[in-house]
Amino acid sequence: MSEPGKTKFGRCFIALGNGLLNFFQTVGEMSQLLAATILWCRAVFKNLDKVLPQMGKIGADTLPIASLTAVFVGFVLALQTGVALKEFGQEESIGAVVSLSMARELGPVLTAILVIGRIGAAITAEIATMSVSEEIDALKTLGINPVRYLVMPRFLACLTMLPVLVIYVNLVGMIGGAAVSKANFGVPFMVYIENVEEWLTFEDIAKGLVKAAVFGVIISIVSCHRGLATVGGPGEVGLATTNSVVFSFVSVYIFNYFVTRLWLE
Amino acid sequence: MASPAQAKKVGIFFIVGMVILGLITFRVEQVGRFFKKRDEYKAYFQGSKGLKRGSKVSLSGVNVGEVRNVSVEEGKILVTMAIDKGIPIREGSFAIIVPDFLFGKSYVDINLVPPDRPRLPLGSVIDSVDVPGFSDMLVRFDEAMSSIETLTETLESARVILARLENGEGAMGRLFTDEEIFDELKEAVTNANDIMGKMSRGEGTIGKLLEDDKLFEDLKETVSNANIIVAKMSKGEGTMGKLITDETLFTDLKGAVENANIILGRMVRGEGTLGKLVRDEDLYEDLQNMMANLTETVNGFRAIMPQGAFTSVIYSSF
Amino acid sequence: MVGIGLDAKETLNGTAIEVRQLHRWFRGNHVLRGLDLKIREGTATAIVGSSGAGKSVLLKHMIGLTKPDSGSIFVFGEELTGKTGMALEAIQRRFAMVFQGSALLNSLTVGQNVGLGLTEERRLSRKQVDDIVREKLALVGLEGKESQLPGELSGGMKKRVGIARALAMDPDIILFDEPTTGLDPVMAERIDTLMADLKNKLRKTTVIVTHDMDSAFKTSDHIAMIYEGKIIEQGSPEEFWRSTNPTIEQFISRFKRHGTEEGL
Fold this sequence. Notes:
The structure holds three protein chains of three kinds. Chain A contains nine helices and no strands. Chain A is mainly α. Chain A has one domain. In chain A, α2 (48-58) packs parallel to α6. Chain A starts with 7 loop residues before the first helix and ends with a helix. Chain B is α/β, with parallel strands linked by helices. Chain B folds into two domains: 33-131; 137-300, no CATH class. Chain B is built from ten helices and seven strands. Chain B has helices at residues 4-29, 134-166, 170-177, 179-200, 206-211, 213-234, 239-245, 247-270, 274-279, 281-317; strands at residues 38-45, 56-59, 62-73, 76-84, 94-98, 107-110, 125-128. Chain B has a seven-stranded mixed β-barrel with strand order 1-4-3-2-6-5-7. In chain B, α2 packs across α8, α2 packs antiparallel against α10 (281-317) and α4 runs antiparallel to α6 (213-234). Mean pLDDT of chain B is 70; it is low at 271-275 and 304-310. Chain C has a domain at 95-170. Chain C has helices at residues 8-12, 55-62, 85-92, 110-121, 126-139, 155-168, 185-202, 213-219, 237-242, 246-263, and strands at residues 15-26, 29-40, 44-48, 70-75, 78-79, 95-98, 173-177, 205-209, 222-227, 230-235. In chain C, α4 (110-121) crosses α5. The longest helix of chain C is centred in the C-terminal third of the chain and has 18 residues, at 185-202. Chains in contact: A-B, A-C. Chain A binds chain B through residues 48-53, 55-56, 59-60, 63, 84, 96-97, 100-101, 104-106, 160-161, 164-165, 167-168, 170-171, 193, 196-203, 205, 209, 260, and chain B through 1-2, 6-7, 9-10, 12-14, 17-18, 20-21, 24-25, 27-30, 54, 56, 63, 103, 105, 311, 315, 317-318.
């Protein structure tokens, strides 16, 4: 170890190798955590007291901010596409563009980003604090499995509530689009709605919801893992949180591509 | 430890979410149609153009059903459609696939025919027309463009040749101006005519032709006359000679005359004389301008094409 | 001096925890280097040593929170090392641990913290749990604090809640990690008394990790010293006091001077 470590190249190589090994280890641990979490889901009905508050946090409590985001995204979508479509005299197609964009892509992805920032970061910070203050160890000594007590409720809450949140986001986004269509391009609501009905299918919505569920799994597992893996002092909590948010973002983007790709087959 | 209030909050959130999902689904899928009775019709197409199960079927733009199945059958695409009961599909209606390259949501449209036509029986095949898609249209337009370009070239050479013709230049020109050659040619033709005349009068069969000296003499004379012409020609002395030796000129001439005949004929009938076409530079320039405009338009379409594709990629990714 | 022989007879006879040849590395540091230790049932053992000597690490190995690189640990004759899942939890159920920072769950009230293990076990009714919580809180002198949040308590009170939480599970062995560190002398005194009571009145086996020699002498009947990853000396407090081992002499010299002054 000391010999190659002396040259610049050697040090680079070692650093790169270690980084790669760490990454593999992290991914491996996350997969293990996911498997353990899924196994613990059998105990969901005994643990509703922990699952329900998490569901509340991720679902109902996130709804106002999610709606605010969604309505503005709807505005912008309608505005951007409206200007382009107006050139072809196709303003009534704004409904199709907004609804399809929201249902297929923007709804799930934007909600995921919001939940990462609001919930994922909080999960990591909370669990990381528990890790460094030995609360996780305390749970274990009390015969409480941290995966059951902490991870499973968050996992289930993300998995089930993210898609529900996306339904609201889709609706609010479409309403936002309708408002801009009417105000800026003079498209009557009924025309907008008819256009949405003509183009949007259940398949589009369902695919978006499946995406959201996948994102929910990613966010919960990444956030919990980064929290549980934290060792050291309170300074590590902030680091772990940043790490978790970045990791979640990148994972969501990557999985978004692959899930979308899957459906194009 | 979960308080009832929390459970209630989650419950309300979840149920309202599901209701919204249900309502949206009901609206966009017209779930009510599941309970409606539907009739099945078929249509054959050359290509599916992105049509798939669940694609909409409209009757002159009004939504009346959906595509049940798209399958391949004996080199054609069989599209099975479910159309709301009570919607009359009559003889003489034909189905077209309206392709949608922006969202990938093509649909079938059936045109309306007067209500006095008899109704098609259930399950029967509706006539279909394969409407070219946008890309097909571009390809055809391209073909049309290149043939127009060829035509312009031909027209151009025709103009040059006609100009030379009038000035008495070149082989054909001289043919028109050189009286001597014309006379010889005329004589040969007259002699030939004599022979033909005798023959038609029944004054000899092929055998008679061989026995009858006088006839032979006449024929000989004709041949010798012809020989003189041929000799002159083979010497390549302007006129017909050149016409024979110079192959390119001949081909040009042939093409030019063919094309010119059609176009010029119309023009002569329309506006005036051959000379006018030849001398009238304005007309030619107009034609040139029109060509330039057309090329520009086509190039414009080509430039738009990738944009269209790009836009459709963006939208479909959303 | 108690020998550290490894007779099988002795292992089963009154030995609560036995550590054999425990090795542990932490980021290239060889923290525990073949440590042997035996803790007898019903005794209070103090493990002393300077900071970073590996005392807390040893404690976490005993309860199965971390796994050794080599060596083995027996709890009531049953091997702990290598066990996972339910088997590990079954052994862990015989333990309770009082953490240095008390490790109370900040989102739960004092009462919920104390009753956490029982509530999650789901063997007892809500009322039974509440009764136990009240009883244990009374034992540590915190009656009526059930509905307060840990954030509202002082360090000493939190530590006592931690002890109540450990007692609520009715364990055979209680591990204390630095119970008096960071407390004022009065509060430290109270904790010491509490720990002594646990041993004398409740007959629990206790293991106390500390560098507070005062606390070690007062609460334990057996002291073991970790130095360079091994137990270098162990015995009763009197034996420890009289030890001629220079490392121990150095370690307790400050306390001895202190004690002499007090004596004067």
